[in-house]
Design brief:
elongated; 72 residues; mainly alpha
């Protein structure tokens, strides 16, 4: 029975990448929400909005990709 558990543990993919990217996405969400609450003009200008959207999109895509890659 322990041999089967060892084989199953060895076959399981590491989810570390998902935890790192998902954690970064969660921290980013907290930072953006805190800035949005405390600074009514956040993000200022078109460049600021584009930057926030770009970073959010990259982190979202990264979380999705690592979730799919480590599933199973």
């Amino acid at each position: 029975m322990t041999t089967a558990l060892v084989i199953l543990a060895a076959a399981e993919k590491s989810k570390t990448a998902f935890y790192v990217v998902g954690g970064a996405f969660a921290v980013w969400a907290l930072v953006v929400s805190a800035l949005g609450i405390t600074q009514p003009s956040f993000p200022s200008g078109k460049g600021g909005r584009a930057g926030v959207i770009a970073i959010s999109a990259v982190l979202m895509a990264g979380a999705m990709a690592t979730a799919v890659a480590t599933a199973g």
